[in-house]
Amino acid sequence: MDNFIFQNPVKLIMGRGMISRLSKEIPADKRVMITFGGGSVKKNGVYDQVKEALKNHFTVEFWGIEPNPSIETLRKAIALGKEEKVDYLLAVGGGSVIDGTKLISAGL
């Protein structure tokens, strides 16, 4: 293995009413990839809130991060992130989405 240094700063923003802060946290000129699981965020309204908060941003969506995400799924997200030249990753979902997005970050 080659020697390397990896630094991955993470900022977690959680809690009621915090989604509206996204536009203040992510500069408007940055490209954002939003990662999701199976779709419960569409049923509970979180998806619409995120899209509204980032309506002035370039966003690309990656859906389908499963529980205990497979490396194949995450490699697809990495490829999409590279293709779209994303600057920011936003995990919207539970622990598997958050953990998978950390690996996506390392891959990008």
- Radius of gyration in whole Å, from Cα? 14 Å
Shape: globular
- What is the helix tally? 5
- DSSP E strands, number: 3
Distance N terminus to C terminus?
A: 19 Å
Mean pLDDT comes to 94
| Spatial strand arrangement across the major sheet | 2-1-3
Helix-strand topology string: HEHHEHEH
| Class from helix and strand fractions | alpha/beta
Low-pLDDT runs of 5+ residues are none
Q: Indicate the percent of residues in helices.
A: 25-40%
Question: What would you say about this model in short?
Answer:
This protein is an alpha/beta fold.
Describe this structure in words.
The chain has helices at 22-25, 40-43, 46-53, 71-84, 95-107, and strands spanning 31-35, 58-62, 88-91. With 108 residues, the protein is α/β, with parallel strands linked by helices. It has a three-stranded parallel beta sheet, covered by helices on one side. α4 packs across α5 (95-107). The longest helix has 14 residues, at 71-84. The protein is globular and about 45 Å long. The two termini are 19 Å apart.
Helix-strand blueprint:
Elements: H1 22-25, E1 31-35, H2 40-43, H3 46-53, E2 58-62, H4 71-84, E3 88-91, H5 95-107
Parallel strand pairs: 1-2, 1-3
Give a quick set of tags describing it:
alpha/beta; globular; 5 helices; 108 residues; 3 strands
